Amino acid sequence: MANSLLVETIASVIASAAPLVFAGVGETITEKVGITNLSLDGSILLSAMAGFAAAMLSGSLLVGVITAMLVGALVAGIVATGSIALRQDQVAVGFVLTVLCTALSSFLGKPYVRVPGPSMPHLPIPYLADIPVIGPIFFNHDLLVYLSYVVIFGTVFLFNRTQLGLRLRAVGERPEAAFARGINVNRYRYLFTCLGGALVGLGGATFSLSVKLGWSYQHTAGFGWIALAIVIFGGWNPLRVALGAYLFGALNSLASILQPAFPTVPTQVFQTAPFAFMILTLLIMNGDVLERLPRGSRWLRKLLQGQAPAGLGKRFQSD
Amino acid sequence: MRARTRLTNLPLGAAPVVLTLVSSSLILLAAGANPFEAFANIIGGAFESWRKFADVLVALVPLMLCAAGMLITFAAALWNIGIEGQIIMGALFTTAAVRWFPLPSALILPITILAGMLGGALWGLLVGLMRTHGHVNEIFGGLGLNYIAIALTNYFIFGPWKSVDGATMSGTDPFPAAATMPLIAGTRASWPPLIIALLAIAGVYLVLNYTRWGLHLKAIGLNAQAAGRMGIRTTANILLAFAACGALAGLAGSFQTTAVYYRLIPSISSGYGYLSQLVVLLSLLRAEWVPLIVLFFSIISVGSPRLELRMQLDSSLGGILQGSIVLFFLLTRGLQQRLSQRRERKHG
Fold first, then answer.
1. pLDDT tens digits, residue range A237-285?
2. Smallest Cα–Cα separation from B18: which of B279, B325, B318?
3. A99·B314 Cβ contact <8 A
4. Buried b / exposed e across A266-290, counting CB within 10 Å, b at 16+?
5. Inter-chain CB pairs, A–B, below 8 Å
6. Is residue A259 part of a domain?
7. Partner of A82 for a Cys bridge, out of A93, B74, B144, B294, CB 3.0 to 4.6 A?
8. Could you give the CA distance from residue B174 to residue B157 in angstroms, rounded to a whole number?
9. A38: which chain B residues are within 8 Å (Cβ-Cβ)?
10. Helix B105-134 to helix B234-255 angle, to the nearest 10 degrees?
11. How many CB atoms neighbour CB B210 within 10 A?
12. Is the pLDDT of residue B139 over 70?
């Protein structure tokens, strides 16, 4: 009995982390080519709203998901254009877009607040879902959750096993060298910033159509910042970024499990605690703490540390 | 974040405003509303009456104080997104001072001001320390501290400082009268915060333009390594910049409790910290432009709620206007720089 409760909890963590997996892996791709899309907290909100509204109006979940992805790609495209073609500060453009998209989601989403609408149908995978423990944890969800696995392993494959992945990493690490080898650096940057943005949008759609159904004011507020944090937490490695998303999901459900045990601590503290904890972890990963670990724990250091792409945030001009 | 452009090209100078009006009109049309009616309602809402215009002055205080602080950190090219947490800690420290220390009435207000500044400065200093000694980018360090500040205030509001009468509004019990700022008759505004906010922006203008510290901060902002080689103490100056910005943000938080809400409430910062970053970006880091932009933003913020009453629209249209004008400003400025570069290349 306790066992099945545990399995159930882990399964819900896997499902509820799907939006963060999409957004985190998407932002990883964007940062791998050297662009920071800081607008995530706003673009997830806007795409979650747009995805829900489009699915509702069209009666098609697919239209909803595609709309959300287009919104995410469009916002990322503005960040890319602003920083590459117009040579403005990426952080400034991204930050302004965060504020703007948040306001847009509130304004345009007003008719959809707490309106019941479409959601992804539950779709256990035949045979796989029947495997004990693993089946209910991984294969008893909806299509978007399965898609999140595809995105994780697809990105790992893209980065490590393909020519394209090699080139996109070169663009982010050493743009001058990539350019010398005949790679059109800025075209790669546009393309993969928008692709990453589309995944962020997919994360938004997963919120409103699969995890936290529907739309409400500031529906997903805060998760964009968490997605940005877990990219660093995961050391720009898609697999570790996904682990970060699951860890955050686990923290969230741990908070709601622990809450009844501490009746004196207000519920509001438990709701914000995972956010605070996540970012504190970041401090430890980034800081000197890792450098000061004793010699025997070198494996731990190797596991935890990650290097930002060397060309991240640096402008590239071929002329 | 260097401000080098001159707005020589007037048509392009007006472009952000035109683009904002056009794009938000399209958004309004898409929402089935009349754009002219909406804009008229925003302006009308802010100037409806003297009492309403005084509300603009109420909104102006935290925005001006935060923008003044932001100018300091931006001068050193630092992104103080942690400013929201610094506002919150200012409010928290102020409330603690009011609740924990039985002060003689005459001393309460000055002490609340100092407590607010202290709370904000400490929280700002933490962001700085994480950057200078923990290698944590100030954006993420600041965000983390924002959430911790929110968790802390929530703990106090719903825990030890829980309102006894279980009032309708969530928050602590109201402050005693001696711990509230005097009002301008017939309005919700009060003089001391307004005067202090104006003094703050003037002070920051003077510090950044006429003092050695201002020069050092700008040198760090342009190139921290070069500044270090020239003998400027970068670490100490960065910490000081964060503490100074935090103190001003904390002051804003303090006034939100003693002059606006008369208690500590959960979302006491109301997003003024984030909004102040937009103000400073739009000012091109020049303090002399800040008061005008702050006034303009405050008018939009105070006028927008009328959209809900009269047109059943969401008041976040105000945020759309504020956000788009800054976005279009950045984008047209980039375009302008590219065009003038191309022209120079052609002629030179």
1. 999 999 999 998 998 888 878 888 887 777 777 777 777 777 777 777 6
2. B325
3. no
4. bebbbbbbbbbbbbbbbbebbbeeb
5. 150
6. no
7. A93
8. 12
9. 139
10. 140
11. 10
12. yes
- Characterise B13 by phi-psi region: left (phi > 0), alpha (psi -120 to 50), beta (else): alpha
A186: tokens are 């800025």
CA distance B99 to chain A (A): 20
Task: Write out chain A residues lying below 8 Å of B15, CB-based.
Answer: none
**Interface contact B326, partner A, CB < 8 A:** yes
Terminal-residue alpha carbon distance, chain B: 26
Q: Per the structure, how many domains does chain A have?
A: 1
**DSSP designation for A120:** P
pLDDT class of A298 with cuts at 50, 70, 90: low
Q: Which residue from A86, A91, A276 is facing B338, i.e. has the nearest CB?
A: A86
What is the residue range of A66's domain?
A: 2-220
Chain A residue with Cα closest to B79: A91
> Residues of B with CB below 8 A from A283's CB?
130, 134, 136, 141, 144
**Of A175, A102, A299, A300, which Cα lies nearest the Cα of B324?**
A102
| Helices A40-58, A185-206: inter-axial angle, 10-degree rounding | 60
ipTM of the complex: 0.91
Give the B window 244-263 contacts with A, CB below 8 Å. Answer: none
Q: Does the pLDDT at position B2 exceed 60?
A: no
Between CA B250 and CA A37 the distance in angstroms is: 29
SS3 A9: helix
SS3 per residue for chain B: CCCCCCCCCHHHHHHHHHHHHHHHHHHHHHCCCCHHHHHHHHHHHHHCCHHHHHHHHHHHHHHHHHHHHHHHHHHCCCCCCCHHHHHHHHHHHHHHHHHHCCCCHHHHHHHHHHHHHHHHHHHHHHHHHHHHHHCCCHHHHHHHHHHHHHHHHHHHHHCCCCCCCCCCCCCCCCCCHHHCCCCCCCCCCCHHHHHHHHHHHHHHHHHHHHCHHHHHHHHHHHCHHHHHHCCCCHHHHHHHHHHHHHHHHHHHHHHHHHHHHCCCCCCCCCCHHHHHHHHHHHCCCCHHHHHHHHHHHHHHHHHCHHHHHHHCCCCCHHHHHHHHHHHHHHHHHHHHHHHHHHHHHHHC
Tokens for B135? 């290698």
Residue A158: alpha-carbon gap to chain centroid: 17
pLDDT tens for each residue of A155-187: 999 999 999 999 999 999 999 999 999 999 999
CA angle B151, B197, B221 (to 5 degrees): 75
* CB neighbour list of residue A148: distance below 8 Å, 6 or more residues apart: A17, A18, A21, A22, A206, A242
Q: Write down the domain spans for chain B.
A: 49-284
pLDDT at B163: 80
* Residue A257 belongs to a domain: no
- Tens of pLDDT along B163-180? 876 654 678 888 988 889
Quote the percentage of chain B above a pLDDT of 90: 65
Q: Is A57 on the interface with B (CB under 8 A)?
A: no
In a domain, A275, yes or no: no
For residue B72, count other CB atoms closer than 10 A to its CB: 28
